Amino acid sequence: MKLRDRVALITGAGSGMGRASALLFAREGARVLVVDIDAAQGKETVRQIEAAGSRAAFCEADVSRADDARGMVEACVRELGRLDICFNNAGVPMPSTPVEEVPEALLDRILAVNVRGAFLGCKYAVPVLKRGGGGVIMNTASTAGVRPRPGLSAYNMSKGAVITLTKSLAAELAPFRIRVVAINPVATDTPMLPGFFKPGLPEEDARRAFVQTIPLGRFCTAEDVAAAALYLASDDAAMVTGSCLDVDGGRLL
User: Fold this and answer.
1) How far is CA 70 from CA 122, 132, 180, in A?
2) Which residues are catalytic?
3) Are 57 and 81 in contact (CB under 8 A)?
4) What are the pLDDT digits (tens) for 95-114?
C-alpha cells in the first residue's frame, strides 16, 4: 500500500475527482478526512470508504472561509491523529462567457473558492506539516491555467494563480521537507463539467467540441486524476516538488 499509515485531507471530496481520490487513497492505506460544503455528498464518500473497510471522517467546510479552513485542519488532527497530505481540490467552474459579460459576483466566487480556498488550505496545513516533519500539499489546477480556453477568463486566471501558488510554496517549504505539487487535468467528465458549457448550446454539441481539442479523443475521468494524485502523494514522487502534472490527453502539446 502506497499510503499506509498516512492521513490525507481532501477538499471537494463529496463528488468527482475528490471522491475518486478519497476512495483510492483509502484503498492504498490512508485514513481520509473528507471535506465538502455538501454534507450529504461528503458523508456518502465516507460511507463508501468505511464500507470497504477503511477509516474516514467528514468535515463540512466552505474552503473560502478562513475559519472553515482552519477548522478542517484541526478536525483532521482531532479525528484522525495527524496530517500528512493536504489535497486542495475544491473548485467551481464558470460557463463560457465573453469577458465583458462576466458578472462580478461570478468572478468573486471563482477567486474565493479556486484561489483563496487553495491558499487557505495551504496556510493552515503548513504549521501542522512542519510539526510533523514534512508532508505533501497538492493543489488541483488545470490545463486552463497553461493553455486557456476562450470564454473562461475568470476560471483560467484562477487556475494560473494556483499554479503560481504551487511553485512559490514549493520553493518556500522545501527546507521543511514539505513537497508542493499540482495536477493539471484537462476537461474531466464529472458533475462539474456541464458548468463550463456555453449557455443555450446543447450539451451533446458542447461535449463534442471539448473532446475534439483532446488528442487522445476522450475526456479525463475522475479516476485518471485520482491515479495521478496517488503518485504525487506517495513516496514514488519523493523527488517531485513544484511540478504541475498534466493529465491532459495531449491537450497541452
Assistant:
1) 10, 17, 19
2) 155
3) no
4) 999 999 999 999 999 999 99
- Split at pLDDT 50, 70, 90, the class of 128 is very high
Q: Contact at 8 Å (CB) between 196 and 93?
A: yes
> Predicted confidence band at 77 (pLDDT cuts at 50, 70, 90)?
very high
How does DSSP classify residue 115?
I
Q: Crossing angle of helices 16-27/39-51, nearest 10°?
A: 20
| Sign of the four-CA dihedral 127, 25, 117, 181 | positive
3-state secondary structure 220-240: ECHHHHHHHHHHHHCHHHCCC
The type of residue at 239 is M
Domain ranges of the chain: 7-247
CB neighbour list of residue 89: distance below 8 Å, 6 or more residues apart? 10, 11, 12, 13, 17, 18, 21, 138, 139, 140
Top-level CATH class of 7-247? alpha beta
Residue with cell 443555450: 200
d(CA 72, CA 81): 13
Task: Classify residue 62 as left (phi > 0), alpha (psi -120 to 50) or beta.
Answer: beta
- Contacts with 62 (C-beta within 8 Å, 6 or more apart), sequence order: 37, 68
pTM recorded for the entire structure: 0.97
Question: Of 40, 37, 48, which is closest to residue 91 (Cα–Cα)?
Answer: 37
Q: What distance, in Å, lies between the first and last C-alpha atoms of the chain?
A: 33
